[in-house]
């Protein structure tokens, strides 16, 4: 049972990889949801093993008292040629999440990214950072999508993300500066903050007023250092085990948790590991991570 003062859920990516498809590929939806129920958690994000039919999904979640909090939505707003089709797709996404009683849409721009941009070719090696004009076009698109989210009782929460054009601290700052605070919120991710070169605590403090959703993820610094030395890209870093659950890496979650408690954060936070479940048992890692988080809260 969650003993923290905010709503705590867990992402199915702990059991089944989204970017690394072989991670947990044989795991079933039932296994994931049964484990989440055993952990005493009541929130999850959409995963690729979950049923896509809303009624079936609602039934599977409902019998375990689990709520669908969000679902990732890739967007390509930095290229105006994609704007209308992307907004149409965003509306359908919002309609689905609204029907599931969700609260936020995890949203990330894929333009320029190495792995997610449909315009890129497999042999390319680097993220293509945005030009100034593309930043403004992206911001316009996000504001429009944020309005769609709001129409459906949801918040667009922008997920700063490794291997994308909004990854580094200055890029997060720029996105927050260019977008409408009433339409575009921030999905604060501790692991992606560290991966992108930010101090997770400083990022939390700087943009707290825009944060409407949280992913709690840790980093193995030695693995990250070795992966960077080998010039591994983002997906390569996942394969090497750069990410883990809170309490198993180098991020100090005590001041992060203290900040959230002091400021009265009452939204959802998802526990995330994003590592090979064959090596790192998802249930056991999550159980230990929950104990770690609860012990920090008790001593805060």
From TrEMBL:
InterPro entries assigned to the protein according to its UniProt record, in alphabetical order: IolE/MocC (IPR030823), IolE/XylAMocC-like (IPR050312), Xyl_isomerase-like_sf (IPR036237), Xyl_isomerase-like_TIM-brl (IPR013022)
Database matches in Pfam families: AP_endonuc_2
SUPFAM superfamilies in alphabetical order: Xylose isomerase-like
Domain Xylose isomerase-like TIM barrel: 34-295
Protein name from the UniProt record: Inosose dehydratase
Native source organism of the sequence: Paenibacillus pabuli
């Amino acid at each position: 049972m969650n003993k923290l003062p905010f709503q705590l859920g867990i992402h199915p990516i702990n059991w089944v990889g989204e970017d690394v498809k072989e991670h947990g590929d044989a795991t079933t939806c039932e296994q994931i949801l049964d484990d989440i129920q055993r952990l005493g958690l009541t929130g999850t994000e959409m995963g690729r093993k979950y049923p896509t039919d809303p009624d079936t999904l609602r039934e599977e979640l409902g019998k375990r008292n689990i709520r669908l909090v969000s679902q990732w939505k890739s967007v390509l707003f930095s290229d105006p040629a994609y704007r209308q089709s992307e907004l149409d797709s965003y509306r359908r996404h919002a309609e689905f999440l609204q029907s599931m009683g969700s609260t936020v849409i995890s949203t990330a721009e894929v333009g320029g990214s190495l792995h997610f941009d449909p315009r890129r070719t497999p042999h390319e090696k680097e993220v293509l950072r945005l030009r100034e004009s593309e930043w403004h076009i992206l911001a316009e698109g996000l504001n429009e999508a944020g309005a769609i989210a709001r129409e459906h009782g949801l918040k667009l929460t922008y997920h700063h993300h490794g291997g994308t054009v909004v990854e580094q601290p200055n890029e997060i700052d720029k996105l927050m500066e260019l977008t409408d605070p009433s339409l575009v919120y921030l999905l604060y991710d501790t692991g992606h903050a560290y991966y992108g070169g930010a101090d997770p605590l400083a990022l939390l403090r700087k943009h707290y007023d825009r944060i409407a959703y949280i992913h709690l993820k840790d980093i193995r610094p030695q693995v990250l250092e070795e992966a960077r030395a080998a010039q591994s890209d983002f997906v390569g870093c996942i394969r090497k085990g750069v990410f883990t659950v809170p309490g198993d890496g180098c991020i100090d979650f005590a001041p992060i948790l203290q900040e959230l408690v002091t400021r009265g954060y009452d939204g959802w936070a998802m526990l995330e590991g994003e590592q090979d479940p064959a090596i790192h048992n998802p249930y056991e890692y999550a159980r230990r991570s929950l104990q770690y988080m609860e012990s920090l809260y008790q001593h805060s």
